[in-house]
Amino acid sequence: MLFHASTLGILLSLFITLLLGACAAFKRVPVPVDVIRPAEHPLPSGSKLAVAGFEGKQGSTIADKLTAKLVGTQRYVVLDRKYVEKILEEQRLPLSKFYELPPDGKAKIGKLLGAQFLVLGSIHNFDVTDRQSTIPLPKLREVRGRDRRGREQTYLENTQVNAKSVSRQAFFDGTFQVIDVTTGVIESAKSSNLKSEEYINIVDPQPNLRDANDSPKFMSRDLPDKTMLLSDLQDTAIEAMVRHVASVTLPEVRIYLTLDETTDTTLSMFKARQYEAAASKLDAVLTAPGALQSKEPVEIAVYYYDCGLCWEMLRSLDKAEAYLARAIELYDEDLFPEALLRIKQRKEEEARIESQR
Q1: Quick one: pLDDT at residue 98?
Q2: Which fold has domain 22-38+251-356?
Q3: Is 0.70 topped by the overall pTM?
Q4: How far is CA 211 from each of CA 32, 121, 200, rounded to the nearest angstrom?
Q5: Domain locations in the chain?
Q6: Dihedral through CA 338, CA 340, CA 345, CA 347, nearest 10?
């Protein structure tokens, strides 16, 4: 059978139009969501981190120690500090200028490093303070006198002397950020205000006098070396940073599908975390008599898929699994089996944790 060239062109155009129409039957909308898991592992194990550095006093030392501590967790791939410094030098970016970059600018440098996350911070105050003051010391002194019978007696009398004191304490004040290199978003920012134990040394001007029971002199201690005090507080700050990296949670993304007024409305509900209301609205369409007769399988599959997402967010995993399985039966779309696999893994995780209780 022979077809005229124009006829073939028309048929081909019609086929392409129908194909594009089927592909464009729905629109994908990425929606960041907070997912509560029974055992959440925030930054994925094996994430590639780069400690870009810390601006301020002892910044380089803190960056080196933090890198070593993160390596010691055996949870992340941590880039070598010398390599990081070399890349920054090649980009003619001293640390002070690097901090002036917007988050997306920092993310570009992170991509050059080959990192997934950048760790950086600023040290605003890291020092030891000595405060001098005068403290009244309650004392007891012996006083000679006579009793009622005229006999000589020795009495203890309350008195007070002024003693010089020095209190020594270390302070750490800094900020700390974790930046997602892929998005340029600051995933976490934290301020640390730490201080060491306060040490007080009191010099008694009259040690020959007996101390009263409530004398502050009993708090007196030799003052520790300033360098040692700063080193101990620095280690405490770095441990807090390591814990903070481990606590960073990344919002997950769900791909919501829209194709008509109903799914546009439920998308707004989903974004507003009104998951139950969205699920009820979609369910109403799926269960209404004759409501699906005029719809194509792909459209019905979208309803089941979106409804499954809502039930997932409500942690009704059995319902979510049933809806997603039905969507797969109706239409072949990569999103559907991916979502179903995620639900099954979540159920297995919950079952495992429940068995360990």
Answers
A1: 74
A2: 1.25.40
A3: no
A4: 66, 49, 17
A5: 22-38+251-356
A6: 160
